[in-house]
Every structure is written in C-alpha cells, then in structure tokens.
Amino acid sequence: MKITIIGTGYVGLVTGACLAELGNDVFCLDLDENKIALLNSGGIPIHEPGLEEVVARNVAAGRLHFSTDVGASVAHGVLQFIAVGTPPDEDGSADLQYVLAAARNIGRHMTGFKVIVDKSTVPVGTADRVSAAVREEIAASGATASFSVVSNPEFLKEGAAVDDFMRPDRIVLGHDGSAEGLRARDLMKNLYKPFNRNHERTFWMDVRSAEFTKYAANAMLATRISFMNELANLADKVGVDIEAVRHGIGSDPRIGHSFLYAGAGYGGSCFPKDVQALERTACQFDQELLILRAVEAVNDRQKLVLGRKVVASFGEDLAGRHFAVWGLAFKPNTDDMREAPARVLLRELIDRGATVAVYDPVAMAEAKRVLSLDFNAAELARIEFAASSMGALEQADALIIVTEWKAFRSPDFDQIKARLKQAIVFDGRNLFEPEQMAANGIEYHGIGRSVLT
Ligand code: NAD
C-alpha cells in the first residue's frame, strides 16, 4: 500500500520503517530539514535498537523515502498517518497545533480518497477537529476529495520500539461507522493483516473510545509506578524491603509483575504529558480525576528522592562535594532525555554547590544538548561529561545511579570502591541487593530498601 507518514520522530520513523518492512511503499514527511537530510544521507536521528538496519534495508529496497515536500508526500499515500508531537500546552492540555497543521496540509494537497490516521496521542474529540480542518481546506481549494479520519493510537515503548511495532500485543482502531469510515476500516484491516495471522490483535471501536484508550493505558501504567514509589518511601521509614514486597504482590495474577518497580520517578515524552492531558480533559468536563492528580504529585516528589537521600547523608550544603551520576536518559535503551529524572537530580546537586561527573552509555550527545539548555555556562562548567562509567567515579564522594542500563548491573565493585573517595552508592533503580553491597563494603541507599536489622 502507498503510505504517507507525517512527522518523522520516534513514532513516525519507527512506523514508517516497519510498514515499509512489511512491503508497503512509504513516504516519511517532516518539516525539519536537518532531520530529513540526515536520514537521506543514511543517518538516524534517534537511538532505537534495530531501527538503523530496518531503515537501511528498506531505503535500499526503494520502499522508504524521506521528504520535506508536503505536496508530493500527501499525494503519495492513500493512508496518511499523522505522527507529529502533541506536547503539553501551558495548562497541561495536549497542544494540537502540529496535528491540526498536518491535517490542514493533507486537506490542501489531497486529490483522491484518503484515510487520515491519527497516530499521535490526542484527546477525545480530536478526530472531529482533524475532520473539520481537512474539510475547511478542501472547501477553500474547491476540490471534492473525500476522506475518513481513523484513530490508531500507538503503544510502542521507546527502547523496544521496533520490536513492539512488529509484534504488537494489540492494535486499537477507531472508525466512525460512516460509508467512508467503513472503507477506511477495510484498508486498515488490509494494512494490519500481517499482524493478525496467529490470532486477531485488532480491537475495533468508535473513534472517541480509541482516543481515550491510549490515555487510559498510560495513566494506568503511571499509576502503578507512583503507587509503588509511594509505598517504597513508606518502606524506607518502617524498615521494609520494597523489592520483597514487589515479588510478594506481583505473583498474584490479578496484580502481575509489570510496572511495579520503585525508583526515581517516571519521565519521558509520554507519561508526564499524557497524565496531565487526561486531567485537563477531565477538568474541561467538570470531572476531577483525584487518582491521577495524586499520581502526578507523587511522581514530582519522587524525582526529588535521590537528591533528598544525598542531602540526608552529606548535608544541605554540597559545596566542595563531587558526585558521579550514572544514567541520564529517562530509561534504558534510548537517548531520550525528555522529563528525565536525572535532570531534576542534577539541578539539585548543582544548586547546592556540588560538582558532578555524568555518564550514560548512549545519551551523552543528547545530554550535552539538553543540559546546555537547563544550565548556564557557569553551572555547566561544574558538569563533567565522563568518557566511561568508571571514569566518572574518580574522586567522587558517592555514585548516584538514575537509569537502569544493563551495563550498570554487574559492575566491578572493587573498582568502584577504589575510584570513589567514599564507598557510597545511591541507587535510584534498585539494581543491587543491600546484602551484596554490604559484603562489598559499600554503603548502599536504594529506594524503599532500608530494612531494619
Ligand atoms: P517527536 O517529537 O519525536 O516527533 C515529531 C515529529 O513531527 C518531529 O520530527 C517534527 O519535526 C515533526 N512535525 C511537526 N509538525 C509537523 C508537520 N506539520 N508536518 C510534518 N512533520 C511535522 O514525537 P514522538 O515522540 O514521535 O511522538 C509523536 C506522537 O506519538 C505524540 O503524540 C506522542 O505522544 C505519541 N507517542 C509517542 C511515543 C513515544 O514513545 N515517543 C509512544 C506512543 C505515542
């Protein structure tokens, strides 16, 4: 099938590359000329395992194209995926300006029938606004093209995006039941047929329910994280090991093991903004979401937990102190630093006068870019970008771990001890066992692991 993807970011690039891998002929459009130039020169703008190979293979096969040409790109596909960003507006609601601009571009340039697929995460009712924007442009141009807007929220996880897209546990699709909607449904059925060979993974529903499903999923996952973080903070006070509790409750199939890890708070481009956007939708309908308000508040507080533990050990004034920080990306296997807990920790350490040496296996280039926006030149001078995890430790008063990269899981503890000025580890992801650290002669501060002995 001929497909156009509008927005070549995490979701758009992965969607475009994977749909090309299935044999479709895909145009990826973006307004960012640098990004398209990079892709056209064989580069990849994001770190995502396996993506580079899929892109290279499909470009070579002539099935995947990158373009900034709006007219040519819209003309190409019968399916027009909108995969642009929906960042939070000032009040936390989803800013739909990019989605609506993409919709208007489709309306302005379309000729024949188009299925407009909302892949961006958008609030309930957005499909109607997309339809209205497209209709306005068609009317202005005097054309008679018909179209249908379908909701197809994306559930891929950064760091495992290609795998998630190629092996989805579900495909959610909403159509409006009109004649055009039914035509759109048939085309989408065909597109996703390869994923439904073993068993049906597609859930068809009305458009508004499909839009809502994405928010419900992210809100549920964020709730589980904040729930465990809140219990972990209490566990620290009452002398309980939250890891033992996690096993104890996760083995109940009604609860399950996923997303029960206590830590330094959730970040990224999705959970924080989607929780906020759902709260805003609720406000607009006079329906306060008490649980989600608490989920957000708990997470904001959790991002401060590592800093608080450092202060509890070293005092409020950290001038003259030097810390090693392992992990900057908001989670492993990505270089994405949007809303990353490491940024909150670094702000606190720098504000309290400390110097830091930071290391991330993949996000160093992105960290340099992002931290140069977060900090002024004098502050940046107190942040050293280390060349290796062990290199970051030299003469540090303590090691602070913020992201659970696999490469951090089995370090050489003797080397850690030899390089640190004091053998102290603050572990924001509970990578190690307190007993193991005690046996290695390392003072260990996990999250919710202060068992009374
Ligand atoms: P992103 O910021 O990585 O990419 C968005 C891209 O859209 C950018 O390259 C931007 O230049 C481009 N763009 C903006 N306006 C455009 C226009 N009018 N025409 C062409 N290109 C345009 O965003 P992302 O992380 O891929 O997220 C996209 C959407 O998918 C968001 O709604 C997000 O909530 C949702 N989502 C993201 C993830 C994720 O893990 N990142 C997962 C599921 C859903």
Automatic annotation (TrEMBL):
Coiled coil: none annotated. Keywords: NAD, Oxidoreductase. Residues 324-434 form the UDP-glucose/GDP-mannose dehydrogenase C-terminal domain. GO terms for biological process: polysaccharide biosynthetic process; UDP-glucuronate biosynthetic process. It is an enzyme of class 1 (oxidoreductase). This is UDP-glucose 6-dehydrogenase. It comes from Massilia eurypsychrophila. Pathway: Nucleotide-sugar biosynthesis; UDP-alpha-D-glucuronate biosynthesis; UDP-alpha-D-glucuronate from UDP-alpha-D-glucose: step 1/1. Substrate binds at F155, L156, K157, E158, K214, F259, L260, Y261, A262, G263, G267, K331. Its EC number is 1.1.1.22. The active site is at C270. Transmembrane segments: none annotated. GO terms for molecular function: NAD binding; UDP-glucose 6-dehydrogenase activity. Pfam families: UDPG_MGDP_dh, UDPG_MGDP_dh_C, UDPG_MGDP_dh_N. It comes from the Bacteria. It catalyses: UDP-alpha-D-glucose + 2 NAD(+) + H2O = UDP-alpha-D-glucuronate + 2 NADH + 3 H(+). PROSITE patterns: PROKAR_LIPOPROTEIN. NAD(+) binds at D30, K35, T86, T121, E158, K273, R338. Belongs to the UDP-glucose/GDP-mannose dehydrogenase family.
